[in-house]
Amino acid sequence: MGGIPVVTALSRETGIPAVFVRKQAKDYGTAKLAEGPGIEGKRLMIVEDVATSGGQIKLSAKDLRDRGAIVVGAVCVVDRCEGAKEALVEEQISLISLLLGPEMMSFAVAS
User: Fold this and answer.
1) Are 63 and 35 in contact (CB under 8 A)?
2) Taking a C-beta distance cutoff of 8 angstroms, is the pair 4, 49 a contact?
3) Structural domain total, the chain
4) How far does CA 32 lie from the centroid of its chain?
């Protein structure tokens, strides 16, 4: 849920449509895993607020790929540097991070 404001702002700024992915499709309403424009055959970036192990990004990538999307990478606001980047390489997903956890800690200590 933390990535929703980030992807909304990115979509609004760039004009690139956003798709919102649930952890699990609901059995009511649209009953879709991904809400938004169609994803089959589309190149997608996954947007996360915080990446730790990369586990949720891997799960989302699998779900999206199973539905025909081409996941080309992931973007996160904060990478905690606890293995996400390395784990995602195994899934052919490159991770781009705005901030690194250790850098943030050094800012806090310096203040």
Assistant:
1) no
2) no
3) 1
4) 18
* Residue-by-residue DSSP string for 47-80: EEEEESSSHHHHHHHHHHHHTT-EEEEEEEEEE-
Residues 62-91 pLDDT 10s: 989 999 999 999 999 999 999 999 999 999
Q: Give the CATH number, domain containing residue 39.
A: 3.40.50.2020
Beta carbons of 86 and 100 less than 8 angstroms apart: no
- The DSSP code for 82 is S
Instruction: Tell me the pTM.
Output: 0.82
| CB burial string 9-41: b at 16+ within 10 A, e below | eeeeeeeeebbebeeeeeeeeeeebbeeeebee
- Give the three-class secondary structure for 34: strand
What domain range includes position 32? 3-110
Q: Which residue has the tokens 């929703």?
A: 4
